[in-house]
Amino acid sequence: MKLSVVLSALTLALATSFAIPAAQAADPLVIKFSHVVAPDTPKGRAADYFKKLAEERGKGRVKVEVYPNSQLYKDREEMEALQIGAVQMLAPSLAKFGPLGVRSFELFDLPYIFPNKESLYRVMDGDIGKKLFNLLDAKGITGLAFWDNGFKQMSANKPLRSLDDFKGLKMRIQSSKVLEAQMKALGAFPQVMAFSEVYSALQQGVVDGTENPMSNLYTQKMNEVQKHLTISDHGYLGYAVIVNKKFWDDLPADLRDTLDKAMRDATVFERKIAQEENDEALAKVKAAGTTQVYVLPYKDRVVWQQALLPVHKEFEEKIGRDLIQAAYRAAAEVEQERAAQATAPAKKDKPGPVKADKVRKQ
Ligand code: LMR
Questions:
Q1: Residue 348 has pLDDT above 80, yes or no
Q2: Closest to 65 measured CA to CA, from 83, 84, 50, 82
Q3: pLDDT of residue 361
Q4: Which pTM was predicted?
């Protein structure tokens, strides 16, 4: 446990105990929800929406304090803070569960494993999602929901078009062994770094480039310090909303139920806005004119995909072959369904045919 986390936790506890007079001891239960991104991102907006729903429906029994932008804790520290109960709720990206010892979550980091959101949701919302959440129990954590962000894009101060363009570049990654292997497979040098430090690291040239969905890139102003962006959709970034298990289990059952339902509704909202937020961010980056946007053509995506496929094999043991195979199956099922839909005679009461796409179609 880092000293800084323990000290921050103590400071928070002291501040809280002095701030609340004894007469108000039975005041609302406080849920501190800490996260590392800006408020105007899919995660940020959904955290605020959850607060609204929870407080309205809790009828004065609960208060949710949302702390965005690493205000309280950075990536790794926030996990520790949750485990010691200094905060009650987080939504770390799925990449950040590996360092906790739950390597199966790295499934979501595998490059090009989910060709579309549909196949991803089948995995998250099915038995695999449940299995992953069960693995958190032993860490004193309860998983409440999977939230979406989107597919990641590559950025740097030079064009990233062919695999050769990555050679020797220092690329910032989240703390995931899969992402480390991914960057190495591209010939780059991966550098693990907390999200809050990426902008200045790019500005100062500590790293040359990075990967993130557009909403994160734009809201952290990374486009101001990255001249080139490649729409590669080469990997996925999503979240698990988690709570301290003891805190959650100790809640009165009716309140837990209310919060659970608020989380369910916040999740529907979150998944609805995620793509819109990313599309909007891309439009804003283009409008800002700071960064040249290049869409990786299909033929080159296939080349990137082939270069990155060995990473799946490399992590089969750590992640679990069954999980990887299940993700492949989900992708194949979606593709078959889309193809069948595309060839079925048009029906008035159904949406129009969706064109099957072997690489990525969101
Ligand atoms: C990152 O570190 O790049 C992301 O995990 C940040 C986030 O939470 O979206």
A1: no
A2: 50
A3: 42
A4: 0.89
Q: Whose CA is nearest to atom 1 of ligand 1?
A: 195
Specify the ligand 1 atom closest to the Cα of 92. 8
The DSSP call for residue 196 is G
Cβ of residue 195 lying under 6 Å from some atom of ligand 1: yes
CA of 210 to the centre of ligand 1 (A): 11
Cα dihedral 117, 54, 218, 110 sign: negative
**Mean predicted confidence (pLDDT) in 238-249:** 98
Count of CB atoms within 10 A of residue 350's CB? 9
**Which of 304, 288, 326 has the alpha carbon at shortest distance from 233?**
304
Residue nearest to atom 2 of ligand 1 (CA): 195
Q: Does domain 3-96+136-148+238-276 have CATH number 3.40.50.10260?
A: no
Mean pLDDT over each residue of the chain, to the nearest integer = 91
> In the Cβ-directed half-sphere of 65, how many Cα atoms lie within 13 Å?
13
Residue spans of the domains in the chain: they are: 3-96+136-148+238-276
Assess whether the C-beta atom of 215 lies below 6 angstroms from ligand 1: no
- Is the CA virtual torsion 13, 18, 19, 23 positive or negative? positive
Tens-place pLDDT, residues 98-114: 999 999 999 999 999 99
